[in-house]
Amino acid sequence: MENSKNNITRRDFLKRLGAGASTIALSSCVGKAAEETIESTTQTNGEMTYRINPTTGDKVSILGYGMMRLPTKTGQSAREGKDEIDQEMVNKLVDYALEHGVNYFDTSPVYCQGHSEEATGIALSRHPRDSYYVATKLSNFSPVAWKREESIKMFENSLKNLKVDYVDYLLLHSVGGGGMEQFSKRYLENGVLDYLVEQRKAGRIRNLGFSYHGDIAVFDYLLSEHEKYKWDFVQIQYNYVDCVQARGTDNRSIDGEYLYNELEKRGIPAVIMEPLLGGRLSKLPTHIVERLKQRRPEDSVASWAFRFAGTPKGILTVLSGMTYMEHLKDNIRTYSPLDELNESEVAFLEETAKLILKYPTVPCNDCKYCMPCPYGIDIPAILLHYNKCVNEGNMPKSSMDAEYAKQRRAFLVGYDRSVPKLRQADHCIGCGQCVGHCPQNIPIPAKLQMIDGFVEELKQGLI
């Protein structure tokens, strides 16, 4: 499939993002007619912005609640499933979200080590069924789950855990990992995709789509089959750093502009994931934070990324995993109502992205798809500690620097505190099992080797 950037100039794309731009016209070359666009509605100042799904007429909040990082009784995120989910706090967060206009909740059978759907179901079932839209996924990642009966069992179990008779938005989860061969085994050869289409006809699935990570050939194939499957929506990664990083390269797998444009041409609503790149765009180096604050002093650093992700008219909702009430409140402020980016602000963010990309952080967004490591290595914790030190300026470069001792201690002590010794990078044997699972295409063994070498040089005083 030809890259859509041949059909849309960069200037045109900026115009489409601009606050003064008219609603994006959707291409009628494939799928829905051009006039079937996503309508944006805001009631009054201080109220949530909504987008209208052209397929079903659903009035969806531009802010979607990602139920991947639920709070625990220890105050941490339950993403790894080590601590018990704090159901009372989940209920409070969901209640507050609904009270302030958030009505889209996204979960999965595998989130929080299998406990997210149940916690989400408990919280949402306390409210009228027509007051929210719930999205979940067919997360049949393991070969055992590729069996038709196991995949169907997973879908039925989702309905049970969520305490619903139907799912509003059902996704084929993280297609692209493993390429076409794995996608075929997960959904085609076993007839599972045909089964899901039948369930949509029966009303047990109201909207059917997929979330994409990985091999662009799978994304292109599924869109080429749009006339057959009639995708109601597609979930993609989209943020201002990826869009700049991918430009000028052939790496369409993380090219948010390409992914979005291909959906827009077909009139398929986009659901956005990773607007903050796993939190990286809310934890930026001090000088970049100051740059953003100078432009809009009252706004949070994260709000820039959320405004970027929400501005294009073909986007239905933007997901955020909000563990803490302050994150929920800040995101609600950003989207109540959404102040769409103008051309000047888009250009400003592009320059900001270029500054971010000058720093040698590893593009890990803590999705944990690389886990578990067969040798017990805590891959995300290692990469995130490295990134944290880069962003905070704790990267010792020379023993001649005035801050060397302080920076060296911060890196080494922080490393031991963040990652138990038996799970550190020196235990990596380079088996490469993690590489195929990484949606960011990070050469993980090489990065671990680099970090381990850096740690050893620090310990021996060679830097």
Key descriptive features of the protein:
single chain; 463 residues; alpha/beta; three-stranded antiparallel sheet; 17 helices; 11 strands; 40% helix; 12% strand
Sheet with the most strands, sense and barrel status: 8 strands, parallel, barrel
Helix share bin: 40-55%
Mean pLDDT: 87
How many distinct helices? 17
- Determine Rg (CA atoms, Å): 22 Å
Shape: globular
- How far apart are the termini? 48 Å
H/E series = HEEEEHEHEHEHHEHHEHHEHHEHHHHH
Structure overview:
With 463 residues, the chain is α/β, with parallel strands linked by helices. It has helices at 10-17, 87-99, 116-124, 148-162, 179-188, 192-201, 216-224, 226-229, 240-246, 256-266, 286-295, 301-310, 325-334, 343-357, 379-392, 404-418, 444-459, and strands spanning 39-42, 49-52, 59-61, 63-66, 104-106, 133-138, 167-175, 205-212, 233-237, 270-273, 315-321. The protein has an 8-stranded parallel barrel with strand order 4-5-6-7-8-9-10-11, surrounded by 5 helices. Strands 1-2-3 form a 3-stranded antiparallel β-sheet, with no helix packed on it. Strand 6, helix 4 (148-162) and strand 7 form a beta-alpha-beta unit. The radius of gyration is 22 Å and the shape is globular.
